[in-house]
Task: structure prediction
Amino acid sequence: MAIIGNPKYQERIQHHLAKYETKRSAVMPLLYIAQEEYGWVNPEGIGEVAQILDLDPTQVKSIAGFYTMYSEKPKGKFWLHVCTDLPCALKGADDFYAWLKDELGVDDGGTSADGLFTVEHVMCLAACDKAPMLQCNFRYVEDLDQDKMRDLLAKWREEAAQPVSG
Amino acid sequence: MHILLRGRDIKNIDQLDVYEKHDGFVGLKASLAMTPAEVIDQVKASGLRGRGGAGFPTGVKWSFIPQHEPVKFVAVNADESETGTFKDREIMEANPYQLIEGSLICAYAIQAKAIYIYLRGEFWDIGDQLDECIERLRAKGYVGENILGSGYDCEIYTHLGAGAYICGEESAMLNSLEGYLGQPRVRPPFPAQKGGGLYKEATVVNNVETLTNVPFIMREGADAFKAIGTEQSAGNKIYCVSGHVKRPGNYELPMSTTFRELLYDHAGGPLHDDRPFKAMLPSGGSGPIVPLTDEVLDTRMSYEDCADIDTIIGSASIIVMDETVDMTWVASKVTKFFEHESCGKCTPCREGTYWLDKVIDRILDGRGTPEDVKRIADVAENMQGTTLCALGDFAANPIIHTIRRFPDDFAQHVQGEAAAGD
Ligand SMILES: Cc1cc2nc3c(=O)[nH]c(=O)nc-3n(C[C@H](O)[C@H](O)[C@H](O)COP(=O)(O)O)c2cc1C
Ligand code: SF4
Ligand code: FES
Result:
């Protein structure tokens, strides 16, 4: 599919265009929409965002490249962003992350062999009192330990195995 | 008593009808009955200072906005990315209407056309929640045209960042909102001036916690606020406690409270009873580290008292470390943060953080020399004051102060005696 002309996104695109004084200001929310559609910020998505905003694709690409939450390559279905910044590290986050990478058989930034999980270490996520913690697809998962994490991975694997409904 | 974290005292205050029942929008109504200048005077008189880090007097900032300019904006800083900070998140999750009310009062005081709430991208769910709050408020006449029949119009929008600490710096935030790279601007002009703010219009940028104080000030009066805290640090502050304590979390306390009361009475003391406290970063990664001596513990957590012990209270992200923690490792962790977050616009910051990170790693690996320790201290000192924004100064702090205040921690990693120290 595409984002231009896709009925799924029209209302949101219009909402963002109406929010700001300039079209260009909508580049960040539109990049999120492109990422949602394609699973990453791919050249098609960048081209479409540029077209909607009357920008040059290279301008849009440089914005996408500046921010860490836009992915410039395809990733797994679940993005696990594990905080290993100082407060979390004081509560064992480095060891927890080393264990998780081992459990999934990946290095930092890598994707598990089944294509489901991409893991990355990130800086403080404003949840330091609930370490170790991570975000899965930008949703908080807090107060983790190895047992909890194993259960979650099992749950997510099961979710991924379900046929998509609707 | 909580002024900010009222979600702890009042169940469901994140629901509009509950918020309204508990003094919600009394401050806004009082403000709309006053002139904008009177509102600014009351906020000035309260002594409220910015909670985003720099502690700038809020009413004074608002008074810089040129009243004759036809278009003005408010940008709410909800980027909350300083290491160890998690207070704005709790405010927005548990008491969102009070932030919006405070933002509306600010907007009225400067006669802004619109408010943009800039949230770090990871606050995705909070953004959705705030959007819902805004729609409910619009339905009841608090947002949009002719607010509560006052004749004043104002819109509120949320904007999600996408993972860049530097977008918490106010001028970078404005660039990011405009769809440019989130890099700081050369100042002057400052955001409050024509040419320096959002879309080049005069703009007030305030932190979430700062604005959430404002409804109380407009409802209870400037004196009620000034009565809390110290001479130069009025009101309560939310202290975010993390690291080696028994009960990490947010604690909202008067700014006259001591570190000892916070860390022992509220946060429960050292995580492990047999491992005493060693050090604390009172303002996340960006402020000077201090040893947790009795003198420090008995210091009040105010702007002026923290200056006396050569540190800052900043955003009050208090990271506590016990005796097992090696300060060289701390310096390395914090330096990695700034190396990652440097926006790359100026050379001393971009290259300095990169180089510091590499050399500290070498020292940690046991391959460093006493000269390396001296050299990183020099490099860090040379970064200070030479960069476009304060991130360069922040990045120098962990190096300079860990070396100065914990020389033995570095000496143990390098052959011979450490060359640096007080
Ligand atoms: C590198 C850097 C990062 C910053 N990050 C934040 C932040 O995450 N949140 C915030 O409120 N202020 C942050 N600030 C401070 C803002 O630039 C600005 O001073 C503040 O939002 C003003 O609001 P206040 O007066 O209410 O504190 C940061 C400053 C710098 C230099
Ligand atoms: S000091 Fe660092 S973060 Fe700030 S503008 Fe310069 S390079 Fe960017
Ligand atoms: S350090 Fe991990 S959430 Fe703050």
In short: The domain at 6-226 of chain B is CATH 3.40.50.11540 (Rossmann fold). Residues B 50-54, 56, 77, 79-82, 166, 168-170, 205-207, 210, 389-391 surround flavin mononucleotide (ligand 1) (CB under 6 Å).
